[in-house]
Every structure is written in structure tokens, then in C-alpha cells.
Predict the structure.
Amino acid sequence: MTKLNSAKDLAALRERLTTTHKRPDRCVAVCSGTGCLATKAQVCADAFATELQRQGLAGEVELRRTGCYGFCERGPVVVIQPEDVTYLGVKASDAAEIVESTLNQHQVVERLLFKDDHGTRLQHLNDIPFYKYQTRLLLDANTRIDPKRIDDYVANGGYSALSKALFEMKPEEVLAVIKHANLRGRGGGGFPAGTKWETTRKAPGDIKYVLVNADEGDPGAYMDRSLLEGNPHSILEGLIIGAYTIGACEGFIYVRQEYPLAVTNTLIALDQAREYGLLGRNILGSGFDFDVTVHRGAGAFVSGESSALMTAIEGRVGQPRPKYIHTSVKGLFDRPSNLNNVETWANVPLIVNRGSDWFRSMGTENSKGTKIFSLVGKVVNTGLVEVPMGITLRDIVYKIGGGIRGNKKFKAVQTGGPSGGFLPESLLDLPVDFDDLWNNGSMMGSGGMIVLDEDNCMVDSARFYIDFLAHEGCGVCVPCREGLRQSLHILNNIVAGKGREGDIELLEELCDLLTNASRCALGTSASFPVMAALKHYRDEFEAHIRDKRCPARVCADLIQYEIDQQKCVGCPLCAKSCPTKAIHGTPKKPYSIEQSLCIKCGACHQVCPAKVQAVLKVPALAPRATTVS
Amino acid sequence: MVQTEAAKAPTNVDVLVIDDEESVRESCRHTLDLEGYRTHLAPDGLGGLKLAEETRPRVAVVDLRMPGLSGIEVLERLPAIDARIVPVVITGFGTVDNAVASMKLGAFEFITKPFEPAQLVDAVRRGVARSLGREHAMATAERASAAATAARAPEEPDVILKGLEALSEGYALGLTASNLVEELRQLEAEAKHHAETLGQIKKREKVIGDLVADLRFVDAIIQKHDFRKNALIQILLDIQSKKHWLPRHALMWVSRRLNVPLSRIYEIANFYEAFSLTPQGAHLIQVCLGTACHVRGGPLLLKQVSAVLGIGAGQTDPKGIFTLKSVNCLGCCALAPVVTVDGRYYGNPDLRQLRELFQACEAEVATEVAAS
Ligand SMILES: Cc1cc2nc3c(=O)[nH]c(=O)nc-3n(C[C@H](O)[C@H](O)[C@H](O)COP(=O)(O)O)c2cc1C
Ligand code: FES
């Protein structure tokens, strides 16, 4: 690689990459995001490499290992370009057939296509309902580039926004564009990025920092992972533009170490950008110096909070500081520091390139652009979805997500992670909008969207978040530490069938304490899931407390497993699966469960064939006397 | 401890001052003479090295910026003259880079101009103590290696101690002799403990070998991070990812090399999920209990896996084959519930599939044990 010393050099490189050095048009793109790797995309891609070679297509057809396509549950996803034929759930053993039929004979392999509700097979990615209702501005490139190759990014127009900002715009002009676009932070709070940038820009001091928050502590969400793994340069480009605008000399990417592929791809991206002179001294010959370091986070939800994240980069235990002074003014090493979420940064190059009016054309009054959600839980189609702001939750759950799986009933959708709330059926027509979600007891959050059905217990779900936060908080301030501990204690009692009259009121009081007295947003928002659950699903709490009954049959102390002697056909599946050997019987005769040995792990319930359904969850005769601390 | 040892260090020893500024040289001489040291002065690097040859000082006070041979170059050449000479660096430019470069070359203390006489005296006094400690360690090392070649009985009780003492010279520990011995005793106890509990390592020599390898490995990591204290968490992550836990001797080593209190290291290791302070099984099983996995039966899956393996979350089985952990989101939420076995992901696995995987893990450990 030769260093690019001017905007012209960059343009010339792009010209070369799209003409003389263009890669073959025909391509087998194999999704190699972590989701698909889990479903063996690696072996699948290797099989394609072998097949292309064997069938003499290696020179003509490119094999590209791309970032995440989003439709992870149906992976590995393979797309044949330029025809845009999309295959789902591809196995290594399918490679020979696909290369033979689709690439050699231009025939489609029907059985690997998406099948819609009417049984029609759909060929193209964007025909599939999961994709059809999305607006994929940020995720789209994931399908076209190999994240380990900067040339792919450049060929697709990458770094043109940086070049435009450096050579055609003054920092104030970039700032004005971001402000006018009304880009709001995608990491949770929705704070306007432009305003934050301006504060850091104007803060006194020569040395300033810009940071990327890729800690993604929200359990159940993986948007940031996917962007960083699949298109690291887009974040880097945004970060460099931000640094130029703010006047920062150094940048940090804080990424959780549980994401090894994201760390690897980011480090590769930094090296390649440096080699091209897009990072380091005198970027593109503009005289602007800026470099970036990757810092791995060691896990701990609270480390994603801005001041805690900065303390962690300083090499200390990541605990939040009281915010008398904002980190924008006095942050990392006490210098002005601007922190934004991965997705926020990834939006920057798009806005600079296409202008703030374009960005404002999407969304609602106060929420512009798109938002990526991790649509998971009980919907049919789970995965990463990017939608325009303003789309309703109902559209996301039903049109994109395909509704609830297994003909079950919808119960709730949860957004905003541990700081968000549950939204019931009656609020499904809410638009995705920072303020609307907030006003209804939830929040946009970083993008977790978890769908719950009738089989999920709301008390258990509320308990889940409190348990999570009680373990993940830093324990420094008393209201948060004790508030969470006591709430957890009460909820543990309730799910164990030991709830008492007055517990609900006590929980409400604790919620109030948490919200009003905690040091950082972990505590102040910790009560949201409980408050929302109490507001919309109070009857479930009451059933647990008064009747010692779990309506959804989830809470282990309130249920037991039994085998319906009439229905059981005497296959030994349940007995074989039982890890504690609690199921007795002889084949061909009904089996039975010895309750004293049963640990209620549900293995028998899961293996009992759907046609038989002999294993039942029934209310426990008497709540077991398990001790709860 | 270090303080009292240093306070007892003798002052009737030779100290060399190399500085191009006459006023600095003279004020150093004045200060050190008052304390009873035999002070020698040199105005430049070459002269200083020559004087070092002749006088074999305990401590050499070296200015970094000098015309001709620079301070850094002097530091590079001093060990060849006599490994016992402990350099103390003075400079008018106290940058981090300088400090790191000179510390790497064995500089013991870093004083920025202008400095108080007391600062100089303190540095020199501790430098002398260290030089003596080094001499002692070198002597022990010689004896130890002589003893090692003389094919001792393997039962000799001090074998680990001696081996490590020999090692200490190579690492030029910043410790006094008694401190060092105490630390090594702890290492020895630890090594024995592991040998017993794991039941895998029979030969004590192997324990020493492993410890030495560990410390070398830790040192390489610290060096990669340029001895920066800020990089502490990153250093610990690197150790954890390679060794799967943070052995005490490794942490002690980090503490010494970075000069951060052991308590701070433990604070970090306790706070973050990523670190384990106990040995981990040969195979790591993680069950996700993040939100997406929770609503799709993660807790049930954990109960099942835990019952099959016979250990709870956060535990390692007595044979050291499996460690079971529960985690908050592995970033594969669409495939929930998710389990990883040695870093490989499995989405919504059935129990039979997992049982097979576990059996394969057990078989692997069994063959390894048989092979060794
Ligand atoms: C407890 C806690 C955890 C957080 N975790 C994250 C996180 O994992 N990722 C993230 O981007 N922001 C997280 N945030 C929000 C950050 O503090 C910060 O507001 C955000 O990174 C700013 O970027 P944005 O304005 O682009 O959203 C967290 C906040 C709190 C209080
Ligand atoms: S919640 Fe289990 S992988 Fe995300």
C-alpha cells in the first residue's frame, strides 16, 4: 500500500479500484458475522472456496466473507451477486450444488430460498419481509464489503466524507451540518451529538480526545458488535471527522473483550488506515494529525457509562464519577473528551456526504434518521433490523419480525435494556421515537428489542433486570446499591411464593428512591423495568403474592413438572434427557417423575414430541421451602 | 520494608555522577559527601564510563542530555562494565518516553531537574541497597547453578527457592534481598499448593520451569505495553486470555514491574467479570443469561448443563476438566439461548448434542493425561 497524500490520491485509488483493479462482478458473499460463524459459516465458506476451484470458477467468481447480514437465526446467509439470489441456512454440503446450479447454469436452488406464509419461495434479499420493511443505511454496506479489506470500503465510496470534510469544509461547517441534522446519540440517552461536540470543541485546553463506546453492555443487543465487525472503517471515518471538527488529537475505541472478532477487525482496520495515511500524521496531506488506540473492556455493565469508561481507559476500576463537571469538558485524563456510541459515529460519514437535509428527511419531528434494533425473543424472525425512526413497534414486531412464533400470544416488548421498560399490546402503535418511548415509560436505549409472549412471566422478567443491575452496579453509592439489593430481595421472595401484602407498595417506594438519589444513570433508570411491569402487569404480581401462582408457569418454586398418564406414549425420550434421573418407567408404558429428585430444568418438557405433549407444567402443590437470601 | 532496608544501606561506598553541567556536578558532590559517600565526577559520557571501570561505583547518577555520548547510551554500556552498578537518571526533560526508555535500560530512579538534595540522597541510598541485593542474588544464583549441575537429590527442600533466586538476577528485581526471599517463599508455597491440588504436576522441577515460563511470559506482555501503568487492565486481559486465570505469582510480578500496589491489581481483578483468580478447567463452558437468552429459556439450559456436569455456575470440577460460567450476552442474541464451548458458539443446542461435546472434552483431557 502506498500512502495517500491528497484528496486526489484517494480519488485516484477509488478510480483504480472501480475500473482497472475492480474485483469480479460475480461473487459468492458468505456472511461471516459471529452469528453465522456460530452456525458454521466458516466451513461453509471454505466449502465454497473448494467448489469454485474444482468447478473452474475461482478466477471469475469471488468468494467474499462479509460482515453480518442481520438475519442471524436463519444463517449462514449466502448471497450470489450480481443476481442477488439469497440462500438461508446454507450448509457446507450445499456448496457444490449452489456453484453448479446457480453459478454455472444460472438456476436457483429453490429449497434454500426463503419461504413466505403462502409457501412462495422468494429469491432476492429485499423481497424477504424481514428486509423489505427495513431502511438499511448503516447495515447495507455489511453485505458488500469484506471488513478485513480497506479497499472494499474505499471502492464503495469510503473515506470520501473524510476527504470532503478535510478539504472542502471548515470544522465549524461540519459541526453546523451535524447540528442541523439533529443526530441524536444512539447509545441510550439520545443526547444531540452536535451539541456535545460543540461543548468539547469550545472547552479550554489543547489536548482533547474523542472516544467510541463499543462496550455494548445491554444484554440482548448486538448492533454495535455487528457494525464494528462488519464495517469498522465506517466508524473510524466518523471518528476522524469528529476529531477534526472537535480539534482532538487522539481517539480511543473502547470495545468489550467478549467480542474478539470485533477487536480483531478493528485493529486490522486501524493498521490499514494508517498505511494509507488516513490515520496518523498529516492525514491525506491535510496537515491534520490524529491516531486511535483500541482499549478492551473487561466486562461490567457500568463501564459503559461515560465517566466509568474513561476511568477504565486510565487503567483503574471503571466507576462513574459524580457529574458536577461533564466529561465533555473534563473527561479522560481530565481533558475535554467526547464520547459517542458506535452507531452514532457510523452515521457521521453518511450525513457529511449526503447532507443534513437528506438525514432530516427520515424520521419524526425530533428523531431523525434510522435506528438499528436487535429484534430478539419470541418473534419468528429474529436478527438485526435497521428501521427509519417513526415506524411503529407493531410494524417491527409483525411485519419485520413476522409476529410471535408458535401461534402464541404477544405479551410485551422491552426496549432500552436494563434502563428501559416493558410496553404492552395497547402501546404497540407507538412510533419509534426518542421522546415517545420515554414518555411511555420506556426508552430508545441502545437498541435491544426483546419480545415476550404468554409463556414469559413478567415478575420473573422484572426480577431479571434488577438481578442484573444489582450485580453489575459499581456499588459506590448507597441508594443504588441498597435500593437494588432490597428490590431484588423482595422480588426473589415473590417469585419463590413468599411474597407478602405490601410488597408492591414497598417496591414502588424503592423505585422512587433509586430514581431520585442515585449517582449515575444506572441507578436512576434501574427502576424503569419494575415500574413498567407493575404498571401494565400488576395482576401477575398479585397472582404471585396472593395465590402463590405463576400464571405463565415460569417461576420454578411455583410449578412442578408432571407426566400426563393418558397422553404419554411411553417413548423413553424424557427419561433419557433427565440429568438427575428423576423420571422412571419402562418403555411403552407411561413414565412418571419423582418430584424429590426433580430440579425443574425443563429438559423433559423440551424433548417431549410436539404431537404428544405429555409433560405438563402444573401449579406446585405447595411452594417448596427453598431458602432465598 | 524497602524503606528500612534502604535506611540501613552503608554510605561508605563509591558513587559516580555524570553530568555536563558543572554546577549540578558540584552540588551533587556537596550533597553526597555530606552523607559520607565517596563521590566521583565526570563531565561527559565517555569519561564517566572510564571512571566507572576504575572505581566500580554502587550507583551511577547519569544525566540524560549530554553532548557526545548520551545518557541513554551510557545506560546501555554500564551493565557490561559491572552488572552491580545501579543507574539513577537525572534530566531536565521529564517526559514519559525518556522515563520508559531509561527504565527499560535498568534505570532505578528518575529525578527531574531541579531537584532537592534530599531527593538525590534518597535515590542514591536506595540504589546502594539495591546494588547490594543484586550482588547477593548473583552470588546465590552462581551457587544455585553450581548446585544444579552437581546433580542433587530431587528432594532437596530449597530447590524451587534456589531456582527462582537464580532467575531473579535475570529480571533485575527492584527488591531488597530479604523482601525477595519472602516473595519467593510465597511463590514456592503457591507452586507446591498447585502441584498438590491439581494433581497433575508431579515433578517439582517442572513447577519451577512453569513458573519461570509464566514470569517470562508476563514480562513480555508488560514490555509490549511499554511498562505503562495505564495499560494495567490490558495487561491483565492478555494474561487472562492466555492462561485463563490470573495466578498470584503473575500478579505479584506485574505489581513489581509496574510499581503499582498489589491491592490495586486485586481490586481490578475482582471488579471485572473477565478475570478469574482461581485455576480454570481445561474446557470453558459458558451459558448466556442475557435478556434474549433469558426469555428463551437460558436459565433452564443452565440448570440442565449444571446438572450434567455436576457443577454450578462459576465452578470448576475437582478433576479440572470443566469450568462452567454464566455470562450476560455473547452478542449472538438471535440464536438464543446460546452456549459456548471453548469459544465456539452453539445456538439453542439440545442437551444430547451438549452431552456429546462434553464427552469429547473429557476424552481429550484423559488422553492428554495418559500421554504425560
Ligand atoms: C450504566 C450505563 C451503561 C451504559 N452502557 C453503554 C453502552 O454499553 N454503550 C453505549 O454506547 N452507551 C452506554 N451508556 C451511555 C453512555 O454513558 C453515553 O451516554 C453514550 O455512550 C454516549 O454516546 P451517544 O451520545 O452517541 O449515545 C451507558 C450508560 C449507563 C448509565
Ligand atoms: S442475550 Fe444471550 S447472546 Fe445476547
Observations:
- DSSP finds 25 helices and 19 strands in chain A.
- The first strand of chain A starts at residue 27 and ends at 31.
- Residues 556-616 of chain A form a domain with the Alpha-Beta Plaits fold (CATH 3.30.70.20).
- The CA atoms of residues 376 and 382 of chain A lie 5 Å apart.
